[in-house]
Design goal:
Length: 341
């Protein structure tokens, strides 16, 4: 039987201690014909040596854009350079198990599935989840589902968003979506791809037995927060329909005020304002992208927006005291607002 051909796109950025092991793990995949596409996204130190080590490997393709294209641009370039019938995105600090890609292929080949995402586990304890079935909030927030908890799913389940750390789709679906919007650069682009998949009438599925371990290091810095907050708003402004934007305007504006206060207290208030400034200066792109995506969707907003939740996780969003009450109010608001979308 002919094995399905999978191209795994790996971005080499700065110095990544696990990059060699990541590539070796992909090459050891079973049940698939593997091609590893490495995009030199600004490799440094030992990662440069890793690229040289695999440069002549028959199952490895090395792409050198000459600059850091970000996760979105680097992934798009890698996918364009790939030859497989399936496209997988795999972080360079992540190790797949031999059967991981094959399990993802099996699921994405199922009826009505557009994206399959692996169970990303903590490297120091593979029983604990790093990212699983990722939720998406009505205000565009998204975070690692199940972080710090043991796996509880015995079978694949639908997920609102598929993490870009280790996901797989068919080449046909990737090309239909035309990959990521490169203006995102990094963060939230995988959420956009996931919601666009749902809007086309296809599902995103979390596969708990497709396991990958991750050298997880949580960090916050002003540039990262700038990208996350800017891109969250771009997601909402381009994917949410006019009725959704109207009914969600009050909580969205209130949340922006809270986030500005929180950002200022934490020392990245300037980055938050910079995100608003970028959106204003690039409003032509935002409008054009909105028109494009409104024309692409096949599922009514009222249907796909059932995926969205109203409460936030305090682990990722340390809002002021009273988060429980805020979540209760938001859940009540969304229960009513969702019917008006």
């Amino acid at each position: 039987m002919v094995e399905p051909s999978v191209s795994a796109v790996v971005l080499a950025w700065k110095e990544e201690p696990w990059l060699t092991r990541c590539i070796e793990a992909l090459l050891a995949s079973t049940g698939v014909a593997i091609e590893v596409v490495i995009v030199d996204n600004g490799a440094e130190g030992s990662s440069v040596q890793t690229l040289e080590k695999f440069a002549d490997h028959p199952s490895v393709k090395l792409v050198r854009p000459g600059r850091n294209l970000g996760f979105a641009g680097g992934s798009n370039l890698g996918a364009r350079s790939a030859t497989g019938d399936y496209i997988a995105l795999v972080n360079g600090d992540l190790l797949v198990e031999p059967t991981t890609l094959h399990r993802l292929v099996d699921v994405v080949d199922g009826p009505g599935v557009g994206l399959a995402v692996a169970s990303v586990r903590m490297a120091d304890n593979v029983e604990i989840i790093n990212a699983g079935a990722n939720p998406v909030h009505m205000l565009g927030l998204s975070w690692a589902g199940g972080l710090g908890k043991p796996e509880t799913h015995a079978a694949p389940v639908d997920t609102a968003a598929a993490s870009g750390a280790c996901q797989l789709t068919t080449r046909a679906h990737w090309q239909r979506l035309d990959g990521f919007d490169e203006e995102y650069f990094a963060y939230c682009e995988d959420t956009e791809l996931s919601l666009r998949t749902w809007r086309l009438g296809l599902r995103c599925v979390y596969v708990p037995d497709a396991i990958a371990t991750h050298r997880y290091e949580f960090s916050r810095n002003p540039f990262k927060q700038y990208l996350i907050e800017r891109n969250r708003l771009m997601l909402v402004l381009t994917l949410w329909g006019p009725r959704a934007l109207a009914v969600l305007a009050p909580p969205l504006l209130a949340f922006e005020a809270v986030m500005l206060a929180l950002a200022t207290a934490q020392g990245w208030g300037g980055a938050k304002v910079r995100g608003w400034t970028w959106l204003w200066r690039n409003r032509d792109h935002v409008r054009a992208r909105r028109r494009q995506l409104r024309g692409e969707g096949q599922v009514p907003d009222r249907e796909w927006m059932k995926l969205l939740r109203a409460d936030v996780d305090k682990v990722f969003f340390p809002l002021p005291v009273g988060l429980g009450a805020v979540n209760a109010v938001m859940r009540g608001y969304w229960a009513v607002a969702r019917r008006l979308v």
